[in-house]
Amino acid sequence: MKPLSIFRTLSMGVPARLSAFSAGAPLPIITPFHHHLTAELVTLLPPPVSDQHWLCHALDASINTQKIALESVKNTTIGDALYRQESSQKSIEEYLDGGSIKLLDSCNEVLEKIQVIHEFVKSLKVVLHLLHQGKCEPSPITSARARNMLEETCDVMERRMNEDMKNHKSRSGWSSLKKLSSRKKLAHYGSANNQEMGELGEILKGSKDVASVVCQILGLALSSKSSKHSLITSQYCKPIITSSWSCSLRKLQNQVERENNHQEGEKRSPAMLSELQQTMALVGELRRKNHIGAARQRETVEELDRSCGKLEDEIRILEKRVRDLYRHLVSVRMALLGILSQP
C-alpha cells in the first residue's frame, strides 16, 4: 500500500465553504486528512463540554485522528518521497523530541484527575452508608463519624485538585498548547500551508493539536473549581480557507474558554462535567446540616447516592477512552521511531 492510500477509501463530502478563498491567494492543496479533520471538528461545535456524551465524542475524534496518523506512518519508509521531504523530516523530529511526550503527560494528568474522582466517590459511598439508615435517624455517634469523614473527604478532594491546578501550569503537557499559540504554530497548521508542511507533517501536527485541546477540555471538565487559565486562547486566525481545520479547532477552544469564564466570581467551573457538578452541589448541601431539616437531609443522601452511581459510570467510560488515546499515542511514537531505525 502506498503512503496515505488509506485516505482514498474515505468517502467524505467537502463543504462548499471550503472553496472560498481570498482574492489573489494561491490555491492550497486540500488533503484528505484536512477533509477528515474538518468534518470531525464541525460535529463538535458548539461544545456542550459538561455533557459526558460530548466528551466521549471529542475523545473518539482524537482517537480516530491518531489512527489515521498511525496508518500513514506505518506506510512510510526511509525511501519514500513523503519521508524525504525536508518538512516531513522536521515534523517527525519535532514530534519525537517533545510533542508526543507532552501528549502522554497530558493523558496521564487526566487519568490522575479521574483517579481522584474515583477515590472521592468511594469515600462518599462510605459516608452515605453511615447516614442511610432507612427511615431511622442514625445515632449521634454514627452521624458525627459520618460528618467528620465527609469533611475529611472534601478536604482531600479540594487539596488534590488545588495541587493539580498548580502542577499542570508548570508541566510540559499542559503548557504545550500555550507554547504552540505563542509561536503562532496553530495559526499555520491548516491546509493553507500544507505545501510547506507536507502531508505527513500536517497529519502529525493535526493529530497532536487535536489531542492537546481535547485533553485540556477534559481536564477542565473534571476540575472541581473554575480556572480562568485552564485553556489558552489561540492566536487570531487569518483564514485563507474560511473553514480550515485549524480555524475550527481554535473556534472550539475559544468557545470552551468563554463558557468557563462567563460568570465572574464563579467558584465552580461552568464547564465541569454535569454529573460532577450535581454531586458537588449535593455534597455542599449535605455539609450544611444546620440549614436543612432531617427530612431534606434524607432526601439529599438518597439523591447523592444516585448521583455518585451515575458519576462513577461516566468516569469509567471516559477513563477507557483516555487510555485508548494514550495507547494510540504510544503506537504513533513507536512507529516513528521505527522509521528512524530503518537502515
Automatic annotation (TrEMBL):
Residues 294-328 form a coiled coil. GO terms for biological process: root development; shoot system development. Keywords: Coiled coil. InterPro entries: BPS1_pln. It comes from the Eukaryota. This is Uncharacterized protein LOC105107450.
